[in-house]
Amino acid sequence: MNMIKNRLEKNYKKLKSWSERHQIEAFRLYDRDIPEYPFIVDAYKDHYLVHDKSDPLKDKDKNHLPHVIAALQELFKCSEQQVVIKKRERQEGLKQYEKLDEKNETFVVRESQALLKVNLYDYLDTGLFLDHRPMRQKIFKAAKDKKFLNLFCYTGSVSVFAALGGARTTSVDMSQTYLRWAQDNFQLNNLDLGGHSFINANVLDWLKTQRTQRSYDLIFLDPPTFSNSKKMEDSFEVERDQDFLVESCMDMLQPQGVLYFSNNKRKFKLSDKILAKFAVKDISEESIPQDFHDKKIHNCFEIREK
To answer: pTM of the full predicted structure?
Structure first.
């Protein structure tokens, strides 16, 4: 147990002053640093979320999860209830959005300029994608007097930062649950919902009806890797369908506008068509936060008209 406890302590010491200086209450504390401990640990204020990445076949004889839990309790003087364990299976479609539990226990974390609601229990994801923290800052700084569109907006955290930066925002998602959560996040930050739009729609269908209107200065596009939701006629795969997504977004941008296109597909390749048609900059490296060891957590591109 000492090995994992020492590493957690070392990582925390390294991140403590940075997180306090930037007022970041949710960050990645441990990212599979030691091969014998195939876990990810995220700190959310005084709660700790442990993603169990162990292989049931390869790792069945060395269950080190109790060591991680004991080390967290000892280091941070937290109770067993403050350590949440999740085992992530390979998710197909919108299964990642299905409920795991019915606790309905939420609390609020600060991330620099914003307050955001998280739920560590009821879904696979918590309501806040920690890996997009640098993108939220980028959009906050670019947002003043802009019209901002957030597609596949999830719980609207990127929209919150755009709104706090001075943008009028439009957030689109197929899930009413997440759109309500996005509105909660706006209200937490004293943002008037009247100046912002929340659209409950299948993004692919919505784009077909909107794409001729050059309405936006900034677009954030963060689709799932794959989806075959009951609400969709056809399946969606990010690499296969990227041309439609990106071209639709570019049609909606003002001439000097910017599209930020992000996705989590490990071996994603931008299509030759997009590379030929637009000015593309790969900003993946700068968009990954310093608390993440996994530098392939997402791909991110800044796309403009040539």
So the answer is: 0.92
Q: What are the residue ranges of helices labelled H in 22-81?
A: 65-76
Beta strands (DSSP E) in 141-263 are: 147-151, 168-173, 197-200, 216-221, 226-227, 236-237, 253-263
Do 151 and 253 touch, CB atoms closer than 8 A? no
What's the 3-state SS for 53-68?
A: CCCCCCCCCCCCHHHH
Q: What are the φ/ψ torsions at residue 254 (nearest 5 degrees)?
A: -65, 155
Q: d(Cα 90, Cα 188) in Å, to the nearest integer?
A: 33
**What tens digit of pLDDT does each residue of 121-178 get?**
988 899 999 999 999 999 999 999 999 999 999 999 999 999 999 999 999 999 999 9
What are the tokens at 235? 């399946």
Task: Decide if 163 contacts 186 (C-beta within 8 A).
Answer: yes
Place of tokens 């197929």: 174
Closest CA to 105 of 196, 44, 183, 22: 44
Task: Give the separation between CA 228 and CA 236, rounded to whole angstroms.
Answer: 6
- In angstroms, the CA 255 to CA 216 distance is 9
- Mind listing the pLDDT tens digit for each residue in 79-90? 989 999 998 655
Determine if residue 172 is left, alpha or beta; phi over 0 gives left, psi from -120 to 50 gives alpha, anything else beta.
Answer: beta
3-state secondary structure of 168: strand
